[in-house]
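Researcher: Re-running this chain for the archive, since the previous output was lost when a drive failed. Same request as before.
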Amino acid sequence: MSSTPAHPVPDRHGQNLFTTDAELHRMLALYLPPELVRHMRPHFERLGALAGGRLDELAQTADKNPPTLSLRTRTGIDQQKVNKHPAYVEMERLALSEFGLAAMSHREDTLGWKGKMPPLVKYVLTYLFVQAEFGLCCPVSMTDSLARTLKKFGSPELVERFLPRFQSLDFDTLAQGAMFMTEQAAGSDIAATLTLARKDAAGQWRLEGDKWFCSNPDADFAMVLARADDAPAGMKGVSLFLLPRQLEDGSANHYRILRLKDKLGTRSMASGEIRLEGALAYLVGEPGRGFQQMADMVNNSRLSNGVRAAGLMRRAVAEAEFIAGERRAFGRRLADMPLMQRQLNKLRLPAEQARTMVFQTAQALARSDAGEAGAYALLRILTPLIKFRACRDARKLTGDAMEVRGGCGYIEEWSDPRLVRDAHLGSIWEGTSNIVALDVIRAVKRENSLPALQAHFGGLLDDTAVAPAFADALRDALARAAALAATAAHEDGDVLARQAASALYHVCSAIAMAWEGARSGSPQRIEWAQGVLLHRVLPRDPLAPDAVPAAWHGPAIAKQAATA
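Model: Regenerated structure tokens:
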């Protein structure tokens, strides 16, 4: 008789990714009104069950069956089509129609809630969804961001004509969005854009040129950067256009998908190269201000990138925790071994930092959209901060978490390899790490964001009941990180941009985590905040054992509760 256990390899598949996430429940209670949490709980639970089961299966299938491009019908008619696997289409239906992830911020009623849904609800749903499927969340984010940019800068006629399709939850009529920016010679250097926009005899804009990297290339609409043929060189000559996939008579617009990209990750979702051949497009906003207007769409997508990185890290950590809790070696559970406990805690720190910064940035977005004084300046710096640091952390964390599963973690039957592959996207799309770190410094220079950041997180710290020595350490670290960022904003200080961005992110996340822990009664979150400060901010001797200073565990001073 075999002595092999019935299930020798622990498998977390089938768990509800919401109900098993106790920290998420605490944070929802802290950041959202109780009535909204009660209303959304069944929806969170349903998506959590899908993400841990059916959605995860669909994602695995779609990853193994990437989209293909057809150029002609079998009868010889030119008819381009991106062929998507049915698993991907089913995920599209879930994300765009059933949960309304792209339309939610542009409707007055979603998931039975009357009135505008706070951005945080959308991001929590995305946080759950992305733990199963990452690739589709890129088109979802671009669709959401395109609608936001259209509403903000489009003429009343354009908004009235096209916005309803982005508000729709009917899967057969709703529109998907994309943004076609990248060119072979331009990349992040928008001033080098070569795509031309010319007016035809009827006064309509026509676009000509190549776009090198276009995700969701068969989207119903795309925001495109192009230079009017009589516009000046440089950034001031670039304008923003709305490009429809189909013309009013139902025929295809005049552009072609030349090929699809063979990508490291996000294999489920198509990315391609586009050639514009006199494609009809509509000018959005003021001529020559295309970069400034597209920046709003890019920044919204950058926030989504940070949310997705946080979701990937949560999935990776949860898988590692499950394996460690179920797997036995040398007569003991892995989770009971001190070295494994240490490693798991090191994984938790960046994952929980990212989760906290998602909540803080989503809150800043809501306040900014409501016109609250200083909120835009805060949002303007928090967005590149989370895009820069969370996306970089996800690359390392997913690899380290894969190791906990051992040899099985390297096998494509499990989620680990897909998480590792997908995690590398965040640091590249919507701005590489250098570009985004420099954008943090640009926010300091142009938006005066540093005082807003210091005021917000200093205010959180003032309302946080922790040991005085720990509070002092956080306060000193905030002042020093701000000083470093101010130095980076001086002439020739760009070389410090990444260092300054990391410092601000780590210190601000530590302060917010301590505030969350004190407000929600979670000693664990305060311990994680201490770990962030100790391991990711303060100097330490790599040749000596490290430990949290005893004074940081001292009695807390009672603080007046802040309003969440």
